[in-house]
Amino acid sequence: MIWGTAFVAQKSGLDYLGPFTFNGVRSFIGGLALLPSIVLIDIINGQRPSLLGSCGSEERRLALIKGGVYCGIILGIASSLQQYGIKYTSVGKAGFITTLYIIIVPLLGVFFRRKVGIVMWFCSVLAIFGMYLLCFRGGGSLNVGDGLVFLCSIVFSLHILVVDRFAPHADGVRMSCIQFWVAGVIAMGCALLFEKVVWRDLLNAKWPLLYAGVMSCGVAYTLQIVGQKSVHPVVASLLMSLESVFAALSGWVILHEKLRGTELLGCAIIFIAVIIAQLPVKEKE
Fold this sequence. Notes:
75% of the residues lie in helices and 0% in strands. It is an all-alpha fold.
């Protein structure tokens, strides 16, 4: 719910700030929001608070740093594509297109020699058809915002694969904190080069920034880590994919965005494809 409604904050923030500026400040706020969690966890475990913490071996410390940096770079690119895309498309459409990462991740696994079943290919075709109904209007052209958010979904898929590579060997909260700082540096560097950063605009956008930074980056990520300790990964993926539904609902209720009949049908088809893709398949003995 937090991730879905954060699309509204991102859209509202564009009224005051450029995409790079918004993402940079948001990422820094997200990194700061995770620091109290890190300190609290260390105190509970009887350790001296530290960003890198007691990683055990040098290998785990290196995995933490490399994972945080790599994820931060990818996250910086993905969030920038998403923020620019939201500038030209609706919150609801952006939410559903972003959710395609759940379909794209297994497909990218082909390049890592991971088998993709017939069900996944069916879901991919179904999702592409849903995207056609959602994104293509009467003229048959793809909105530039839709295209940018789709590229964002592909990059987010790479982010998920990189997290999968490093997360088992590093502390998840610390790695997330590092990635937010790295993504923030990248975004603010681009903001200083291509946008005009004005303190008054930052103050005007304080509520969207705080919601996207504290809630979306800090709170939601921490809730995900805590929740997945007692929830099956398939169930967790299904629940997280609901961000697309909450994005559409919040865009409708808060921003008064409307979707045409064909666009609503496209949303429904994409959501069905996402659900089918996450259903467990009985393996042949």
